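yo

u said u wanted the structure for the complex thing, so here. seqs first:
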Amino acid sequence: MGKTLAEKILSQKSQIGVCAGDIVIANIDLAFVQDTTGPLMVREFEVAGFKSLAYKERTILFLDHAAPSPNSQLSNDHILLRNFAHKKGSRLSEVGEGVCHQIVAESLAKPGDIIIGADSHTVTAGGLGAFATGMGSSDVAVTFALGKTWLRVPESIKVMVDGKLPIGVYAKDIILHLIGLIGADGATYQSLEFGGSTFDTMSVPGRLTIANMAIEAGAKVGLFAADEVTRSYLVDQKRGNDYIPLEPDSDASYIKTIKIDASRIEPTVAKPHTVDNTALATDLKGTKIQQVFIGTCTNGRLEDMAIVASILRGRKKHIDTRLIIAPASMEVLLQSIAFGYIKTFIEVGAIILPPGCAACLGLHQGVLGNGEACLSTANRNFKGRMGNPDAFIYLASPATAAATAITGEITDPREFL
Amino acid sequence: MLKGRVFNFGDNISTDHIVPGRLAHLRSNLPELAKHVLEDADPSFATRVKKGDFIVAGNNFGLGSSREHAPLVIKMAGISAILVKSAARIFFRNAINLGLPMLVCDTDKICDGDKLEVDLDQGIINDLTNGNQLPFKKIPKAMLAILEEGGLMPYIKKHGEFNL
Ligand code: SF4
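structre next:
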C-alpha cells in the first residue's frame, strides 16, 4: 500500500514504515515557542528538572506576539525568554524580526522536516512539505530537552483543487471555501493533503496561506508536495540546497477525497464568530467595517502586500475605516519598502505596524472597541480574539480587505480590478 | 471515582473563550489568570465552580490556540474532568499532559447542574440526577500511559523518555 505525505514523512523520520494510526517516536528538526507560550515552557522545563537542550541550533524562541511589548508583564516575559535563550544557547528571534511562522518558512523549514511549535499555526510550514504541527508548552519543553516527541500518524483527507482561479480570487478564498464546506472540525486530528492542477502554478506563499488555516478545520497538519515551485522558492530564499522532492504515492489511501473546482470559487468571507461561518463577499455588501487589518502569518507576505498595493494605489481609504498593515517579517517589510508598497499604503491613509502578530490576537496595536467590526486577513475570528468580546471579526483575502478599506463596507475586490 | 456538578457549555468553545489573548500579560501570574477561566463563555463560572465539578460540552471543545494555559486554568479551577462530544486535537493532548482527564461521550443527555459520578477505570459516567448511565470512549493507549502517571512531566521524570 502506498503512503500519504504524512505517512511518508513520519516513516522516513522514524525509519520504520508506518501507517495511519501508528504511534511514532520521532526526532524533531525544529522546535519553537513564542512569547505567549514560551514562559510556561520555561516553567515546565524547570519543573521537569531539565538542564540543557538536545539541539541548540534546532531550538528557537520567538518574540513576536507582543512585539514591541505593550506592558511590563509582557516585557518581563520577554526578559525571561531572552535569559533562557542566552543561558541554554538556543536561537532567539527578537522583537521586530517578524511572526514565527513566516520566519520558519523563509529561513528554516525544509520539505520532509518534522517541526513542533507551541503555536497552533505551526502547520503553516506544511506549505513547504514539512510535517509541522502545534503542541502545548509541556510537549515543546520535552522536545527541547530530548530532541524528540511522540506522534500518532494521522489519517489523511485528500483535497483536490483543479482549474484556474478567477481574477480576484486567491489562496485565502480556497481555504475559506474549504472550511465553510467541511466545518471547523471537519478534519479534526487528520492530515489535510492538497493536490490538483490549481497548485501547479500557485507559489509557495499561497500554499503557506492554505496550510496555515488547516488547523481551522481541526487538522493536525496541512501538507503540500514539494515540487519545482517549492524548489524555486527555496532558491529565491538562497536555500536551494534545502530542497528535496516529496510527493505522496499514487496508491496512497485516504479516508476521503474532496474535489474543488477552483474556477467556481468567489471571494469568500468568514463571518463572526467561527471560521466556518462563511459567505460570499458580494452577499455581505453594506456591512460597515470600522477597521481593516492586513498582515499575520496567514496573509502578511510580500505577495499579499503587492496585491493590496495594486488595489489601493491612487485611491484613499474610507474616512470611517482605519487601515492597519503589518508586514509579517522584516524581510517582507524591507521588500515592501523597496517596491514602493509602503509609500502607497501611507499615502492612502494606512497605519504601518512593525513586523509581528500586531492586532491579530488582541494584545495591542489595534484592539477593537465595543460593537466595532474588523475585516482581517488573519485566520481566526473567535469571540474576543482581537481583544474585545463585544466586537466582530470578518476574515477575508488581502484583496477583499483592500477593497473594503476603500469603501468602508465589505466589498468584492473584483469591483476594483 | 470522580464526583461533582455539571457546568454545561455548547459547541465550539475556543481557547479564546477559556483564556482570551487579551489576558496574555497574566500568563506568568497563573493564580490571577485563573480568576478569568472561561470568562468569555460564562462570566460567572469562575466564582461558581467548586472542586470536583465537571465541564460538559458539545463538539470541538478547545479549538484554536495551542495555549496550554487553557486546560491549566480549568484544572486550577478544580474541574476533575472535561466531558465532550468531541475535542480539538491540541487541547486534548494538552489536557492529558496536565493530568486532566478529557472524556469523549454523548453529552446530549447531561444537563447543567446534574450531579455526576465518573468511574475512570470502568469507563462509565453515572448521572445521579436522572439515573442515566453513559459509556465514554477509551482514551488512546499512549495517552492513557501519560494520564496514569499524572501528566507528561511526571511521566518523563519517571521514564526519562517515551516508552509508548
Ligand atoms: S499572526 Fe496571529 S495567528 Fe499568526 S502566530 Fe501571530 S497571533 Fe498567531
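Chain A has a mean pLDDT of 97. Chain A has two domains: 5-261, 268-416.
cya
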